[in-house]
Amino acid sequence: MQEILSQLSRFRFQKHLVMIIVCVGMSLSLTSLSVAQDDTSDILKRLEQLEASTGEQSLAQKLNLSLYGYVAASYTHNFNNPNSQANALRIFDGDANSFRPNMAQLVFEKEGKVDGAMVDRAGFRIKLNFGEDAKFTGGNTGSDEVDFQEAYAQYVAPVGNGLDLRIGRMNTLIGYEVIESPFNPNFSRSWLFGLGEPFTTTGIRGTYQVTEHVLFSVGGINSFTGAQADLNRSKSVEALLGVTPVDWLGVSIFGFWGPEGALGAKNADRVLVGGIIDIQATDQTEFVVEAYYANQANATPGVNARWNGVAGYVIHDFTEQWGVRLRGEVFEDAAGFLGCGGSVGAAGNANTCFGGVAPASQTLWEGTFTLQYRPVPSLLTRVEFRYDKSNRNTFQLGNRSANHQETLAAEVAYLF
Asked: What distance in Å separates the CA atoms of residue 327 and residue 277, rounded to the nearest whole number?
């Protein structure tokens, strides 16, 4: 800055000197006057541009801070017209025949860099959610419509290709779908995501880009549920191995291991192992398959929990504006450990069932068709039809139980 100010001082002196020369030139000849005026005008313009360009940068610019997010709202119609006004076994679309202010999300972050000075390697992220979906993000599961989905500090250590270290609350390494609706193929979430996977985790994580095609990440965390409180005396581990052998193929293998259960109880280890295959068949068509298996002995007294499932996605864009997304899924909750754990009127009606009582076991199937239209890149609109089926009567048809549920939903999201 001192050097810039010094340059400005020299330029200002030259500016006055030029004006003196111009005055002297005026007494010599009209031709010299014309030339001097042209030269003076050019110099003054350059001086003004230089002075304007040396204004102080804001703190946000100096630190490379970013602010972004999205706002989303939806309407869902349930053809069963349940008396409870709740869509059974849904996560972020639990309101039947109702408009829903799903999410207003703000993200404030500075991303740590792989190289540069220490200040460049340090970073952080704060992700704040408002709205109905915030009742069921990050292990909140309460009545508050505000939730810190992510809040972590970051440092990229100068080790090899750069060791990315993060501590705090972060999105999980497990699974294909995410909390943020615009970043999923469909509006409604799969049961693999909504019932059988954590949303966020709290702990410490290290990520290393082994080669251009291989990435490995591992973290020590408090709880599978993503709750901020530590629910047991031991820590759990989650990990991810990502491989992209060719440009059109991505393979991810993820896993979780650790004791889960009530504080003070003798908790058996919970194990989850799964993977994702992502095939970019053409510039316009993508195929994705996710599957996993999970098990925990004595998850609750006398109950051995096991759940597993598979989901397949077809993602096709006709143009930059129009596209369709298809999803088919099978999910098994062998001991009834996961499904039907919510209650109507709480946490956005997430994971509710008819009668509010979880069955002994349940197998679920669903098919989802989503039509997507982007009038402009920042505005996402979607219409979606979904058919749910169970081998038990866990859905509601009017005032009675049923083994099926059909919904039609519309969503609008603006990204900024």
From this structure: 14
The H-or-E segment that residue 16 falls in is: helix 2-26
| CA-CA-CA-CA torsion sign (383, 283, 326, 341) | negative
Amino acid making up residue 312: G
The pLDDT assigned to 263 comes to: 62
Task: Classify 302 in phi/psi space as left (phi over 0), alpha (psi -120 to 50) or beta.
Answer: left
| Buried/exposed code over 176-200 (b: 16+ C-beta within 10 A; e: otherwise) | bbebbbbebbbbbbbbbbbbbbbbb
- Give the Cα separation of 415 and 260 in Å (integer): 37
Which of 184, 191, 185, 187 has its CA nearest to residue 74? Answer: 187
Question: Is 70-415 assigned to CATH 2.40.160.10?
Answer: yes
With contact defined as beta carbons under 8 Å apart, do 69 and 58 qualify?
Answer: no
Give the contacts of 405 (CB within 8 A, at least 6 positions apart).
78, 79, 80, 87, 88, 89, 387, 388, 395, 396
pLDDT of residue 58: 64
Q: Kindly state the average pLDDT of the residues 286-306.
A: 91
Q: How far is CA 314 from the centre of its chain?
A: 20
Mean pLDDT of 364-390: 98
pTM of the model: 0.83
Q: Is 396 exposed, middle or buried (0-12, 13-18, 19+ CB in 10 A)?
A: buried
CA dihedral in degrees (223, 228, 229, 233; nearest 10)? 30
